[in-house]
Design brief:
Layout (H helix, E strand, L loop, with lengths): L19 H71 L18 E3 L56 E2 L2 E2 L3 E2 L2 E2 L27 E3 L20 H11 L21 E3 L4 E4 L11 E6 L6 E4 L5 E5 L4 E5 L5 E5 L12 E6 L5 E6 L4 E5 L4 E6 L6 E6 L5 E6 L3 E6 L4 E7 L4 E6 L5 E6 L4 E5 L5 E5 L9 E6 L5 E6 L3 E8 L11 E9 L5 E6 L6 E5 L3 E5 L6 E6 L5 E6 L6 E5 L3 E5 L1
Antiparallel strand pairs: 1-6, 2-3, 4-5, 7-8, 8-33, 9-36, 10-11, 11-12, 12-13, 14-15, 15-16, 16-17, 18-19, 19-20, 20-21, 22-23, 23-24, 24-25, 26-27, 27-28, 28-29, 30-31, 31-32, 32-33, 34-35, 35-36
């Protein structure tokens, strides 16, 4: 038998050889099918995860909207209860205090405690604390239950209205009341004319953490029932007002609302305005939106186009639509621990409205991309709380002021600090001039400084005989850039004229002088601003009042009472006709 294949026959291999490639192909096909199946399954999982994330975001948005709605409804009911309570008291019924019940809502918060205390006692707080250069401001006593509102009460040592020798507290003699409003006690002077105060404690002070504390109603406010005046009393009031010297006619808080004729007052549900009898009335005012918050509103600021207003409070900044009053954005750094207080002291929009800068107690400046709700830039370097920020009109530079005695300029494009300016005391407020050339700062040392923003050279220091007599808490440039206004704990506002030499004249000395002082507030001036065309000076005070002043004469046009605690921040809309206020009563308000 021939064991060899025919030369032309097919080759013979081992058994099963031709079947191996097909088996391998089958296995590869199975693996590919499983891979495609798993890929499709992962795509399905990703789609489900995205859907869950969208559902979570929608739930979060609904919860936030419900929370805001609840806060607004609560505030509405509280206002209605207060209104009914005032009506009841006006008709001779039992007052809330006489029934021994506490207020129907939590006591309004106040600013002021802590060893580094720049804003100490603005609303209430420890009377024996103060930063270097700042004698401790007086404490605003908490109103106990069961006592009439006009009886000032406080810790042992405060004057309770009982007869006897003057009481002292924290080194201050109790001051007499003015028109029922407790006067601000004046500290005793030390030799050399400087106010006596405690020795410096560690680093320079800054606004202390806001805390809850009840504030006594301001006389004439909606919280205090107003007696019906006898016939013709308003005529006597107007005659008396017309006989007051013009320099003293700005004390609009001394006017009795009930005695004024209708053309010199305007009342809302929980606010009122009085107009100066000695000045021609050319303004009107009305409340547009009430924006309740969960904590003290430390700052308010409009976007350059006037469409949005931002507020800073505990742990977050919020943005609202000016026309509707609806919340637009809630900006909060989720990487921070959730316990403890962290107040946003200052907010400001970039000129194009795309970003919001916030300065906080944790010494960090955050620049938020509003659209994505993410942090675009984060600047660190300050050693104390940041109290004030301002965006340059070029959209590139941010100025910051801190209790660490420094003003710093930051560049968004290079993401770096470009200027570091040191002074002798805590910086409370900063502002950049409209032409980006200068940066101004107010300080605990009672002075206002202006520097060249490019070189850091001190241009002028505004102080002296005609300067402020106490710490400066707010500065703002006029639209023209050649003037600025400042507000102080000395209860006054000052307008300064800046004379800066042309750059081509070497060695020429710049100068600045106080050309006008605005007097009329009953307590610390905490915030000042100028309307877009420089037509009015706007101010907010610890006396809970907002005043509009004629910048050319220094005469007050109107006083607005609409908050139940200190007005910490005022801001005019850059487009005109609207302004906002922020207060220790946990509310921001938008007015026209």
């Amino acid at each position: 038998m021939n064991m060899y294949p025919h030369p032309g026959g097919p080759p013979r291999g081992p058994p099963g050889g031709p079947q191996q490639p097909s088996r391998l192909n089958e296995l590869l096909e199975q693996i590919r099918a499983e891979f495609e199946s798993e890929s499709q399954r992962s795509v399905d999982y990703e789609g489900q995860i995205r859907q869950h994330i969208q559902e979570i975001e929608m739930i979060r948005g609904k919860v936030y909207a419900l929370e805001q709605q609840h806060v607004q409804i609560k505030a509405k009911y509280e206002d209605e209860i207060n209104r009914l309570q005032r009506e009841l008291e006006a008709r001779g019924g039992p007052s809330q205090s006489s029934q021994g019940h506490g207020p129907s809502h939590p006591p309004p918060p106040s600013i002021g405690h802590g060893p580094s205390n720049l804003f100490g006692g603005i609303m209430a707080g420890s009377a024996n604390q103060g930063g270097p250069g700042l004698a401790p401001p007086p404490q605003e006593p908490q109103q106990p239950q069961g006592l009439p509102a006009h009886m000032p009460q406080g810790p042992p040592g405060l004057n309770t209205g009982a007869p006897g020798p003057p009481q002292h507290f924290g080194g201050y003699p109790s001051a007499p009341s003015v028109n029922g409003y407790g006067g601000v006690p004046q500290p005793t002077a030390s030799p050399g004319g400087k106010r006596a105060g405690p020795p410096p404690r560690g680093p320079p002070g800054g606004p202390a953490t806001p805390q809850q504390n009840s504030a006594a109603p301001y006389p004439g406010s909606p919280q205090v029932p107003r007696p019906t005046p006898p016939p013709n009393q308003h005529q006597n009031s107007l005659i008396a007002a017309s006989q007051v010297p013009l320099s003293q006619s700005n004390c609009l808080a001394d006017l009795e609302l009930e005695t004024l004729p209708d053309n010199l007052k305007k009342e809302g549900s929980d606010w009122f305005a009085v107009f100066n009898p000695r000045a021609r009335r050319v303004l009107d005012v009305e409340l547009i939106h009430n924006l309740p918050h969960q904590s003290v509103v430390c700052c308010v600021r409009f976007s350059l186009d006037g469409r949005y207003v931002a507020t800073g409070c505990n742990r977050s900044a919020q943005i609202f639509d000016v026309e509707s009053g609806a919340p637009v954005a809630h900006l909060q750094d989720g990487s921070l621990p959730e316990d403890g207080d962290l107040y946003i002291r200052s907010v400001c929009f970039s000129p194009n409205g795309a970003y919001l800068a916030t300065g906080a107690e944790d010494k960090v400046i955050r620049v938020w991309d509003i659209q994505s709700r993410t942090i675009k830039n984060q600047f660190t370097g300050h050693e104390q709380d940041i109290y004030s920020l301002d965006f340059a009109r070029n959209g590139r530079i941010i100025a910051s002021g801190s209790g660490d005695r420094t003003v710093r300029l930051w560049d968004l494009e290079s993401n770096a600090q470009v200027l570091h300016l040191s002074i002798e005391d805590g910086v409370t407020t900063v502002a950049i001039s409209p032409d980006n050339r200068f940066v101004a700062a107010g300080s605990l040392d009672k002075s206002v400084r202006v520097w060249d923003a490019n070189t850091g050279q001190l241009v002028v220091r505004l102080e002296g005989e005609n300067g402020h007599k106490d710490s400066v808490y707010s500065v703002a440039f006029a639209p023209s850039g050649d003037r600025l206004v400042s507000g102080s704990l000395d209860k006054t506002i000052k307008m300064w004229e800046l004379t800066t030499p042309p750059r081509m004249i070497p060695g020429s000395a710049p100068s600045g002088k106080c050309i006008r002082t605005f007097e009329g507030h009953k307590d610390f001036v905490l915030s000042v601003a100028l309307t877009p065309h420089g037509d009015w000076v706007l101010s907010g005070s610890k006396d809970r009042g907002v005043q509009f002043w004629d910048p050319h004469t220094g005469v007050a046009q109107l006083m607005l009472q609409g908050h139940k605690n200190s007005v910490i921040s005022v801001a005019p809309s850059p487009t005109g006709g609207i302004f906002a206020t922020g207060s220790g009563d946990m509310r921001a308000r938008i007015w026209r």
